[in-house]
Design a protein that fits this description.
Elements (H helix, E strand, L loop, with lengths): L3 H15 L7 E3 L4 H5 L7 E4 L4 E4 L2 E4 L3 H19 L1 H7 E4 L2 E5 L5 H15 L4 E5 L3 E6 L5 H11 L10 E5 L5 H10 E5 L12 E2 L3 H13 L1
Parallel strand pairs: 1-2, 9-10, 10-11
Antiparallel strand pairs: 2-3, 3-4, 5-6, 6-8, 7-8
Helix pairs in contact: 3-4, 3-5, 6-7
């Protein structure tokens, strides 16, 4: 015969399972956390700067080197301003989150010839790297931090009530979402926002049409 203590414990576990779920909705963006906070509901989990900073109800986290990364981005903008001028820099160089985008007029070889070696010198030994195309230079952190790591970090930050781990529903469709799909499969459900994306995917579920997507957005907006 089971003891009263054991039965009481089982009843407690059943009661925990029967409680309504606590739902946290979240958004991942390349924009900074401060910018997201000015536009989003305060009950959302906000992962700004591509997940380098996270803020939720009762918790917050930032990548340990985030402040240094931003300082180096601002230093680079300052260097460009000194070399090319404030008017050109203000119009063509923009920091968003932990990335700097520099637009290059395709016919302005003079600017290209100045920018390329200058940025290489400025980034030497830094936490940043640059990728150049015909019309843009994109500067981003070299440190490895992808959405798989982000999902794991959010799982760690979320409350684990009564020893129960949170269940993750991750919605996405971009190539950069694939690492997050892999992590979500360990903690819950990975959902593709559209059916035919023309590539293999780690997502295990998908929304069939815009009607299903709209229903999901209405549901999230009601949280």
């Amino acid at each position: 015969m089971r003891s009263l203590k054991t039965i009481s414990g089982l009843i407690g576990q059943i009661a925990n399972l029967s409680r309504p779920p606590v739902i946290f909705a979240g958004v991942i963006s390349h924009r900074s956390l401060s910018e997201l906070k000015s536009k989003m509901k305060n009950n959302l989990i906000l992962a700004g700067s591509n997940g380098f900073e996270i803020d939720g109800s009762g918790f917050s986290w930032a990548f340990p080197q985030l402040g240094f990364i931003r300082h180096q981005l601002e230093q680079l903008v300052g260097t460009i301003t000194l070399e090319i001028g404030p008017a050109w820099t203000k119009h063509n160089a923009k920091i968003t989150g932990v990335e700097l985008s520099i637009s290059i007029p395709s016919n302005d070889r003079y600017i290209v010839n100045i920018l390329s070696p200058m940025i290489r010198r400025a980034l030497s030994g830094s936490l940043l790297s640059a990728q150049q195309t015909t019309d843009k230079i994109q500067v981003s952190p070299t440190v490895h931090w992808d959405k798989q790591m982000l999902v794991r970090k959010i799982v760690d930050l979320l409350p684990h009530e009564s020893g129960l781990s949170p269940v993750i529903y991750y919605f996405g469709s971009e190539i950069s979402d694939e690492p997050a799909f892999r992590a979500a499969n360990l903690y819950g459900y990975s959902v593709l926002l559209r059916e035919n994306i023309g590539r293999k995917t780690n997502a295990r579920y998908y929304l069939r049409n815009n009607h299903e997507l709209n229903k999901m957005l209405i549901w999230l907006n009601a949280i």
